[in-house]
Every structure is written in structure tokens, then in C-alpha cells.
Amino acid sequence: MNLLSHYKYVFQMQFLRNAGFFVFIALIQILISIGIVIGFTYLIPSPDTATILFLATGAPTIILIFTGLVILPQQVGTAKSDGYMEFMRTWPVKRSVILGADTALWLLITIPGIVASTIVAHLMFRPGYDISWTVVPALLMIALTSIGVGYGFSYLLSPTASLGISQVVVFGALMFSPVNFPMERLPEWLQALHEVLPIYSMAEVMRASLAASTFEATAGNYINLLIWCVLGYGGAIIILNKK
Amino acid sequence: MVLDVKAVTKVFSGRGRNKMVANDNVSLRIQEGEIYGLLGQNGAGKTTLVNQILGLITPDRGDIQLLGESVIGSPARARSICSVQPQSQVPLGFLTPKQAVTLMGKMRAGKQFDPKRVEMLFETLDMGEWANKEGEKLSGGAKRLTAFCMAVIAPGKLVILDEPTNDVDPVRRRYLWQVIRNLTNDGTSVILVTHNVLEAEKAVDRVAIIDKGKILTQGTPSEVKSSVSNQMRMELSLASESDLEIPSWALSSHRNGSRLIFAMDPREVSSTIEWAERQVENGLILDYSLSPATIEDAYIELTSKKVVVQK
């Protein structure tokens, strides 16, 4: 029995088990991402094109952060408390296969929201999208970092603690992170914190690939994402294999 | 030999210096095609033992061998040899029983998976009406049976069932025991974890009584019973609250409302029946039943004896 067929059946099992939930979440994400682009223009009177471009290129990052650091940890918390996690640990497959199949599912449900918000923002505001080929690897990298870190802390911590963290992340990512506005507006200590946390790097990498002629990401941003991604998945694998 | 558990000890350390000995020098062996019952109260250490057999946790001392190879070195191998029905309900979400069982079968057997076996199981267990219903909408018993089917759809060499009959109605329980018996005819061994002692007595080939992490006794059900006592028990329902004089040969007795139970030596059976018939004629008792001591009696005696010794 090879890894590939294990992967296929685990993927099917996880997909069908959550099918209704995934459809619901994908719809919610379409609403949230369009909401970020349109809703924030209500908050800011007569926004210029640069501001709208910031919002429009920030929305996909917010979706990926929500999925990986908010919805996923809540799902993991539920799976822990209702015994499904323990049941998965008895399956005759490698733990990394389960993690891989779940990651693919989470990745898939973010795509409708990202595509919808980008199309809507383009049609309404034409803020100056300049989509580079790097959008595919960038999206993958940001999603994997976000999902990986989400797995890491939700496997490590109790369901209550990880629920707490995701509440802070929702609020922090939306209001206190340089995703929808430039980093310079934040106080210095928050800037220093965001140099370490992955959120700023996610936003930079996303922007650089959606509006390549306006923004660019540094090598430091990519390295930051890579480190968090490895930390997240590494932690999750260790905890899954822990006895 | 399918499973050989050798002197396994597992200690959990809680907060501070609290230590909980979950398994204390446990040894047992299971042969091919055998149904082995693991009886014990809540917290006796049954599930800890099962988790060690699956390689989910590692013993502190001792070794566990599955088909001649240690579990500790290769837990992934252990998970493909054993299939499990967990004690807690499996949350199926939107999966229908048919999807869940089919996918688990494919995951276990790959190309050798036989979809006809799903139909066969559902038919035997009379689960047809639920086969295509979403898991969330099923009753507790239907979910439990689905989890059972997931464990036996493509059984490894060892099937571990943790309280499989919880929530299941009496009619389907019988079908379920039939499925388990058929498994063993194909050479699969079964570990049945339960505290439902009476039910286990009829189903198992051998049984171990485990209490506070230790195996108190193991053997065939009749060996376990005779290790404790060779008594008969008489159960009466009294006609009224009036006092009935308990015969002098009763070894011990207790009364629970209008029910009176006493134990006695098997040699007294005929005189006891004569005595009981007289009481029925006098209208003092409504009916009576006489039975050999059950494994439940042995179980209670063994586990409560320990408490007495500790005092």
C-alpha cells in the first residue's frame, strides 16, 4: 500500500466528513474578503487609489490568516475534545499523510474568497493590480505558514488556550497588523514585534505578487515565512507522533 | 501467537509528585482466532493497555509483541495489524455510514478491498435504513454500529473493540456478536474491552479481570468463576414485605426491596428447591430462580476483596 493511495483515502474521508462545513466557510470567506475591500472604504472617507490597493492586496492575506490561525485551530480544538483526534491516531497511515491531506483541504477552501475579492475589487476600483507569476508560490507559502503555525499551536495547547489565541489573532490581524495599511503607522514596539511575527511578511509577499509594479518583498520576508512554516509543521508532526 | 504482552508497567505522572500506576506488571497472550475479554471497572487501566498495544503510548517497563515483533520499535506496523473501535463515539460529521465504512476499508485493504463486504455487514447488522444518512443525524446506537463496522470492514490480525455494544439495542447486539464470531473463524483475534460482565461471559473464549492496573485473574470464564467460588445463587421475589425465614444453609444473603438473594453450596440444590416450592404454596414468594454463580459474582468478589485487603 503506497503513500499516494493512503493520501487519497484520507483526503476523501476528511473532505466528506466536513463537506457541508467547508462550503459554509468558503461562502463566509467570500463575504469577509469582499467586505474588507468595500467595508474599509466606508471607514476611510474618500480613499485614494494607493489606500484601496493596500486594502485589496491585504484581503487575501487576511483570508489566509483567518483560515490558518482562527478557523483551523477551532476545528482542531473540536476534534480534540470530541475524540476524533484520538481516533485518527489509530489509523494505519503515517501521521504526515493526515496532516498533508488536511492542509490541502484548508488551502482549497481559501481560494474562492481570494479570487472573488480580487475580481470584485478590480471591477469596482481598478486599484492597479499587476499580478506576477509569483502569486502561485507566494500564495502557497503564505497559506502553508499560516496553516502550519495554526496546527503547531492548536496541537500544542489545550482547546481553550488555542481558542483564546485565535480571538487575539482575529482582532490583532485586522486592526494592529500592517496588512491593510503601511507598517510606518504603527508604534515602534509593534513594528519590532511584526518584524519577528509572520503576519507582516505574509502581507508583504502577497502584495509583491498581486501588484508587482508597486510593491516588493525582501528576502527577509521569505526567510521569515520559511522559518515559521517549518516551526509550525515540525511542531505539529512531533506532537502527532508523541506517545 | 498474535499478541504477547510481557510484564508491562505504565505510570502516569500527574501534577506535582502524584503518580498513577495505570498498568502494573501486566502479562497476557492471545492466540489466533481467540476472543479475549478485558474486564474491569472505570479507570482500571484497560484503555491504557490498549493504547500501548497500538503503539500510541510506550510502556515504562516490559514489552509488547505483535506477531513476534515488538510494537515499541514500529508503532506504524502495529496500527496496520490492529483495527480499533474506540470507546468514545466516532464523530462522523457529514459522512454517511456507507462512506465512512467504505473509506476505512479502502484505507486498510487498498486494492483488496471488497465493497460487497460493506453490504454484507450492513445487512447482517440490519443497518440498511441508516446506510446513506448523514452521520450527524444518526442515533447513538447507529453511530456505534458504524464505528464497529469501520473496525471490522478490513480487520487486521487483531481487532480491538472498546465497549462495542454500548447504546446498541438488544436485537442488534446479537447480530453484532455473530459478526465477531465470524471474524474469529477467519483467524482474526479479538480483544473485547468492557465492564458489561454478563454479556462478555457468553462471548469470550478467555477473560482477564483487571483492577487498579493489575490482572487479578485470567482464564476461561469457567476457570475464572471456579477460582473464586463454586456456589449457587437463589433469587426470590417476595409476595409481601413480611419477613421470610432464610434457610439455615444459606451462606450469605442480601435483600433489595422485594428481592432476596442468597448463596449456597451446590449440594443443597434439591432441598432448596423443595423449600422454595413450599414457600410458593404458602404464598410467601411469587417466583424464584436458581443459577450457578456468574462471572459477575466472581468479578465483584475479586475486585471488592482487594478493597477489603487494603483497609
3D structure, described in words:
The complex is a heterodimer of chains A (243) and B (311). With 243 residues, chain A is mostly helical. Chain A has one domain (3-241). Chain A is built from nine helices and no strands. The model of chain A has no long low-confidence stretch (mean pLDDT 90). Chain B has helices at 46-53, 75-81, 97-109, 115-124, 140-152, 170-185, 197-203, 221-228, 269-281, 295-310; strands at 3-13, 19-30, 35-39, 61-66, 69-70, 82-85, 158-162, 189-194, 206-211, 214-219, 232-238, 252-256, 259-264, 285-292. In chain B, the strands form three sheets. Chain B has a six-stranded mixed beta sheet with strand order 6-7-8-3-9-10, with helices on both faces. Chain B has a four-stranded antiparallel beta sheet with strand order 2-1-4-5, covered by helices on one side. Chain B has a four-stranded antiparallel beta sheet with strand order 12-13-11-14, covered by helices on one side. In chain B, helix 3 (97-109) runs parallel beside helix 5 and helix 8 packs across helix 10. The longest helix of chain B is centred in the middle third of the chain and has 16 residues, at 170-185. The interface between A and B is medium-sized, with 26 and 31 residues.
